[in-house]
Amino acid sequence: MGRLVLRRLGATIPVLLLVTAGVFALLHLTPGDPIDAMMAESVDATAKEHIRRELGLDRPIPVQYVAWMGKLLRGDLGRSIRNGEPVIENVSRRIRPSLQLALFAMTISLLVAFPVGIVSAVRHNTSVDRLGTTFALFGICMPNFLLALLLIFLFGVTLRWLPISGYTDPLDELVDGVRSLALPAVTLGLALAAVITRTLRSSLLETLTEDYVRTARAKGLSEWRVIRGHVLKNALIPVVTVLGLQLGTLIGGAVITEYVFALPGVGRLVVDAVFARDYPLVQGVVLLIAIAFILSNLLVDILYGWIDPRIRSR
Amino acid sequence: MTLSRRAFLKVCAIASGTPLVTVGPRGMPVALAQAPAPRPSADTPKKGGTLRVGFYIEAATMDPHLSGSKIDRQIYHNIYEPLVTLDTKLGVKPGLAESWQQPDAKTLIFKLHRGVKFHDGTDFNAEAAKFNFNRMKTEPKSVRKGEVASIDTVDVVDPYTIKINLKRPDAALLATLTDRAGMMVSPKVIQERGSELERNAKGAGTGPFEFVEWVKDDHIVIKRNDNYWNKQGGPYLDRVRYRPIPDDVVKLQSLQAGEIDAMDYVQPRDVAAVKADKNVVVVDVPSLAAFSYQLNHTRPPFNVKALRQAVAYSLDLDQIVKGVWLNVGVPANGPVPPTSWAYDKTIPPIKRDLAKVKAKLAEGGQGNGFTFTMTTPNLPINGQEAEVIQAQLREAGITMKIKLVDAATQLSDGNNKNFDMISYQWSGRPDPDGNSYQFFKTTPGISLNWSGISNPTIDALLDKTREVSNQAERKKLFSELTKILQDELPMVYIIHPIEPKAFSPRVRGYEAIPDGMMRFKDVWLK
Amino acid sequence: MLRRAARARLAPFGAVVVVSAVLVALAAPFVAPHDPLKQDLGNTLARPALVHLLGTDNLGRDVLSRVIWGTRISLVAGFVSVAIAMATGTLLGIVAGYAGGRVDGIVMRLMDAVLSFPPLVLALALGAVLGAGLTGVLIALGVVYTPTFARLMRGQVLTITARDYVDAARALGAPGWRVAWQHVLPNAITPIVVQASLSVAFAILAEASLSFLGLGIQPPQASWGSMINAGRGYLQQAPWIVFGPGAALFMTVVGLNFVGDAVRDALDPRLRD
């Protein structure tokens, strides 16, 4: 297991190099300039030149990349151009709401997906199954921002049950915090629930046809005992894969949800940074998101080994 | 029937919930919308409460000398004070300076208020003012250099008098000093924590509110300055809490649901609906802004004057203002907004005239029409305006392509003159100079003169508007300028927008000043 | 048998929806009751009525006609971007799987890099570089979806090349490319098709997300996504602006998913009973 982890970590280095080079190239190919973007209504060319020189933005792009990599190797991600703070501070401030949102959304999605997925699989090809399947699709068949606006309209404006925008840290104030994350978490959670329900259902169906399940049934165990005792654990593997992939995506990818609900998360940070052409910030955040993505994949592989010992030996 | 006193109070409260807006000529609310007009007996201001304000974007810096972004000013006008301020009719009135005089065109003398202290306890005086001007002029990162360029030296006459010596006459300077360029920062704070000031303005200002904290991306909090020097009126509010809410639909809903008490801007599409909502009070704030398109004089097709004119005559501004802006603004005749003393209402906006378009197309050698590209921000209202303009031009035989870009790309395309026609939505400055000089004066290199116009007549006229100090004279010069611009067309002007702000009915005492800044000194919560 | 019929009811429904969407897209000029670009600033935000079955939008344009024309753009965004991803991904997957060794390593690390890029940021940056517009969207989404196909194809190649008949073909001296063409591709094509049918649905949605961020279709063209985005500010005053394109988008995506699911169920031997 340790060897697997090490080997996998080694393989990530070229990937991360590609990511950093890619994001660097893309950013500098994009028209626009961070200093102009920051001072939209000012034409003080001398002040702007001064800042550019100070930040080293006047140097050739490959030189800037090498300088950035050099700092990175010393553990320094640089500073945001827009707010002058270290990138790592920007990210650490933003990671909390993102992580909380991701975990909250996952919890919701699992709470929805497990009952629906199991019932759909057990009552395979009945109207219950069709209802479940259709419901599962609901969350992924609507653009995120539309779902968010509908939820706001219903629960925030009309019923006034939940706050519409803004973020309170649940670790500071539990109730307010959870309330502030509720609508965004449902927005994300419904889409995720759809993906998980579907994965769970089909993997349950596959497992249900295995011989040992037939044996268990032949022994006269109740269907529920069969599922709980024999099927569920084996059917979990694809679900874990999906969850792992989604965790990485959720942390950096909840851009639209964070934007609509005015949550200060990582997704919005990186998109705002792209719009502001805040090069060091984009580079830093994309790198960290990539690392999070890779690590969550690795975590999935380790979980595999735990769920299915056969994989561990490979 | 007699009303009980309580019922009477209620009626007053309801009546005062509607802003008083008088409609002037051409449908322009001239008003000086005093959101809920103060009623001495029924509605006396009371202290306390936190005002929650929603903005579309996060502030960039707390240092007024280094600020280049519009949103920052909203906060500055509550924690810092300029030497002079604006009244509702854009007149200049005393701020930190109690009076001023101009013995000659190149001298400006300010008498400063006594007993004014910065929030860090140090005195505001002539030395502090001089320090500030020097910093604006010499700090390498200063963004104020252009605004104070005409200032040569600042002399301390006595502890509460400064004399500003100008390099050249600058009639616009006084109005410029009503904003960031006139804002005074504690020299002690700059000396001791200068580099930190961008993030933390503790102790830095003299204003009715003090900076408390800025949690990046989440909120900025300011609190009442109990030692505020001006004992008339407020400050009443305990705190003001600013929060960025990037999505304007959600921002408005947050106000309707009572999560915020004030917001900086209501989209035209929402104005009518929100005015009907009794949970929200809308205040129409006529602005200083001029929204337009710059036409690139340095390359075809718009290096040909006749083709610029063909485009201008193709546009139906009334239709654009009505259909896209839903009359939240008036058609523009040029750079000077109707809020300004320099606005000349005898000059009509350019009228649509398809016969003239035909003639101009032929004159410009494009009898069968031509094709060009419009560059405009990818925001909903800009997209809509582009589509309406596209349809209007199509009727006139001109083909326009639309290129939607993000703000950074727009700036870079503009600065590099990489466009045919590009949207330019200028927020405006209190003196008409700020809406014209930097756009039309011949300037090599990068400037706001994106069109690249270089016209000796215009240059001379622009310089003259700065030299003449008599307001009536200056007004004539700006009228002349407006007429020339309608012929030369470095820009096609579309609209002088109104910038409606919205409040919860609890918010009282807001006075709308056309610069759009939300000053909360006299605001209180019912 | 009965159960299969019950299950099967969703698939034909999906197929009907998808086929009609394609037909509507092709026949847009004939089925649209109005010119989708015709503005009428005197008749904006009109409620649905006989003249305008789905009402008019904020510029007085007929929403139904715009939805019908928008079908073209949305389907192109979905199908073409996935076609791009499928072509590139499949090719890269075959190369990687078949060549193995260093080539395999390089190609797959590249794919990992694309995968670990936050997809919206990748699309956003690519779109900004390529310039806004349909082409930018197609390429950006194409790049985002490529790794999925490359991984899938590589896996298939590895499984199939291990089979006896491929060994036999090789032993008989058939060149590598011919073995790939004749034996590997036909066998691997089914999972690719399943993946593609589901990806199209996601791509149509992704195009809508890009519209939200201001990237995507340039007016006067409109996709369902860009219509929803332009109309979302009117959700309270004139919900029909969003309802039309929203319903079209929802139905099509649901349809594509039903079809994709059915194809997968049908092709997966273990699910046949």
Brief digest:
Chain B has helices at residues 5-15, 70-79, 126-138, 173-176, 187-193, 248-256, 268-275, 305-314, 317-323, 354-363, 380-395, 407-415, 437-440, 456-467, 471-488; strands at 50-55, 84-86, 92-94, 97-101, 107-112, 151-158, 161-166, 209-215, 219-224, 239-244, 262-263, 281-283, 290-295, 329-331, 371-377, 399-405, 421-426, 491-497, 501-503, 507-508, 524-525. With 526 residues, chain B is an alpha+beta fold. Chain B starts with a helix and ends with a strand.
| Head-to-tail CA distance between termini of chain A | 10 Å
**Strand runs of chain A, count:** 0
Question: For the residues shown, what is the average pLDDT of chain A?
Answer: 82
Strand % of chain A is: under 5%
Structural class of chain B: alpha+beta
Number of H/I helices of chain B: 15
Description:
The complex is a heterotrimer of chains A (314), B (526) and C (273). With 314 residues, chain A is mainly alpha-helical. Chain A is built from 14 helices and no strands. In chain A, α1 (2-29) packs antiparallel against α13 and α9 (211-218) runs antiparallel to α10. Chain B is of the alpha+beta class. In chain B, the strands form five sheets. Chain B has a seven-stranded mixed sheet, sandwiched between helices. A six-stranded mixed sheet of chain B has the order 14-18-13-17-15-16. Chain C is mainly alpha-helical. Chain C is 74% helix and 0% strand. Chain C is built from eleven helices and no strands. At the A-C interface, α1, α6, α7, α8 and α10 of A face α1, α5, α6, α9 and α10 of C.
How is the topology of this model organized?
The complex is a heterotrimer of chains A (314), B (526) and C (273).
Chain A: H1 2-29, H2 34-38, H3 45-55, H4 61-73, H5 87-122, H6 127-140, H7 144-158, H8 174-208, H9 211-218, H10 223-253, H11 255-260, H12 266-276, H13 279-307, H14 309-313
Helix pairs in contact in A: 1-13, 5-6, 5-8, 5-10, 5-13, 6-8, 7-8, 8-10, 9-10, 10-13, 12-13
Chain B: H1 5-15, E1 50-55, H2 70-79, E2 84-86, E3 92-94, E4 97-101, E5 107-112, H3 126-138, E6 151-158, E7 161-166, H4 173-176, H5 187-193, E8 209-215, E9 219-224, E10 239-244, H6 248-256, E11 262-263, H7 268-275, E12 281-283, E13 290-295, H8 305-314, H9 317-323, E14 329-331, H10 354-363, E15 371-377, H11 380-395, E16 399-405, H12 407-415, E17 421-426, H13 437-440, H14 456-467, H15 471-488, E18 491-497, E19 501-503, E20 507-508, E21 524-525
Chain C: H1 2-8, H2 10-26, H3 28-31, H4 63-99, H5 101-116, H6 119-130, H7 134-161, H8 164-171, H9 176-212, H10 224-231, H11 240-267
Helix pairs in contact in C: 2-4, 2-11, 4-5, 4-7, 4-9, 4-11, 5-7, 6-7, 7-9, 8-9, 9-10, 9-11, 10-11
